[in-house]
């Protein structure tokens, strides 16, 4: 029986090579690779896609988050609220500025931030809130934005897994002051290398972000503020621009695959992901929960079905963040979810027969 990969970017390339190859050749022939016309064109197209006024590209999603925090002069002694159930780069970005990540627990069903816990950890040192739109679905932004507005705290959305996701018809990244995206190759919209972007409707923030990503320059060799080097190159920008036209189609296919998984697994002793009210889920990942997770993963691997865990160790229990002082039991929902979650194969080029095979093998495990 053929192996079913967790992801397959080679299959994606075969689908879109006629769109991608010419733009790669165009960049190589032009010979302009940094902050050139391809970057400008992609930034314009992406901000139009998400419904924002400005887009500032960056070298990665991690650095996009760090730049957003830097734009608010957040640093040592400051606190930034987010979740422990996320990819470590969310916390990495906070640490890059010298600020301290402060975590809140999540909701069991959605695996997203439990917004009702925010005010309990707000202090005079809280300088930003980073809601993580994990797995392709948005956090409850209405309640979060009300809390943030009441306390005059900026909201920086982590949209690394939410390209095209919506909350009450607004796309991820457009509800807070800044939205941050990753274009890591496996994302719903991925480059063929690292990349990231920030979107905002604030012209002053956009201008500051453009300087911060390029050594603090307003004009060449005129450095108005201290910045870093975090620039999306023209080759990746051209590839992303070409792939952008496929994003909605790919997201719809992800939703179709999720629907097939829902239907095929609904009567099993697992918790399947559900689309929340007011949300449009783009299923960057299809994450089920099972108390027999480890045995299930081992069984599926033996049958040639590749799965992953997103994420097995919460940030607050990572050795790198031991200095924060959290111990096991601090976030019981996060810790319980981390013990039970399993991500099934999910990418737009996954065939229906492969989806059926995954479902059959999961069912065989529980039979």
UniProtKB/TrEMBL annotation:
CDD domains: AHBA_syn
Keywords: Pyridoxal phosphate
Annotated GO biological process: polysaccharide biosynthetic process
Keyword NADP: no
Keyword Amino-acid biosynthesis part of the UniProt annotation: no
Any Pfam family: DegT_DnrJ_EryC1
Residues modified to N6-(pyridoxal phosphate)lysine: 187
Active site as annotated: 187
InterPro entries in UniProt: DegT/StrS_aminotransferase, PyrdxlP-dep_Trfase, PyrdxlP-dep_Trfase_major, PyrdxlP-dep_Trfase_small
GO molecular function, one term: transaminase activity
Source species, domain of life: Bacteria
Family: Belongs to the DegT/DnrJ/EryC1 family.
Protein name: Erythromycin biosynthesis sensory transduction protein eryC1
Lineage, uppermost ranks: Bacteria, candidate division KSB3
């Amino acid at each position: 029986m053929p192996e079913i990969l967790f992801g397959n970017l080679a299959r994606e390339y075969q689908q879109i090579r006629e769109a991608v190859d010419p733009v790669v050749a165009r960049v190589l022939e032009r010979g302009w690779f940094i902050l050139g016309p391809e970057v400008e064109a992609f930034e314009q197209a992406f901000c139009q896609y998400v419904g924002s006024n400005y887009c500032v590209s960056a070298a990665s999603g991690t650095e996009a988050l760090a730049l957003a925090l830097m734009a608010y002069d957040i640093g040592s002694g400051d606190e930034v609220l987010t979740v422990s159930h996320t990819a470590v780069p969310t916390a990495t970005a906070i640490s890059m500025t010298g600020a301290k990540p402060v975590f809140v627990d999540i909701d069991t069903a959605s695996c997203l931030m439990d917004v009702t816990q925010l005010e309990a950890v707000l202090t005079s040192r809280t300088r930003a809130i980073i809601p993580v739109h994990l797995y392709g679905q948005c956090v409850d932004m209405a309640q979060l934005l009300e809390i943030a507005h009441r306390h005059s705290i900026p909201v920086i959305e982590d949209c690394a897994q939410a390209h095209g996701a919506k909350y009450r018809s607004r796309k991820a990244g457009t509800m807070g002051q800044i939205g941050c995206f990753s274009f890591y190759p496996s994302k719903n919209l991925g480059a063929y290398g690292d990349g990231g972007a920030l979107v905002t409707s604030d012209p002053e923030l956009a201008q500051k972000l453009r300087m911060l990503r390029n050594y603090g320059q307003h004009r060449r060799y005129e450095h108005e503020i201290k910045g870093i080097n975090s620039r999306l190159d023209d080759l990746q920008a051209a590839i992303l621009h070409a792939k952008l036209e496929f994003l909605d189609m790919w997201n719809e296919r992800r939703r179709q695959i999720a629907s097939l998984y829902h239907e095929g697994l609904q009567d099993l002793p697992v918790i399947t992901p559900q689309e929340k009210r007011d949300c449009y889920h783009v299923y960057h990942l299809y994450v089920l929960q099972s108390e027999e997770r480890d045995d299930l993963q081992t069984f599926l691997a033996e049958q040639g079905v590749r799965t992953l865990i997103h994420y097995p160790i919460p940030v607050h229990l990572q050795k790198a963040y031991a200095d924060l002082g959290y111990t096991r039991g601090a976030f019981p929902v996060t810790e319980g979810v981390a013990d039970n979650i399993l991500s099934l194969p999910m990418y737009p080029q996954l065939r229906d027969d492969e989806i059926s095979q995954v479902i059959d093998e999961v069912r065989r495990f529980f039979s």
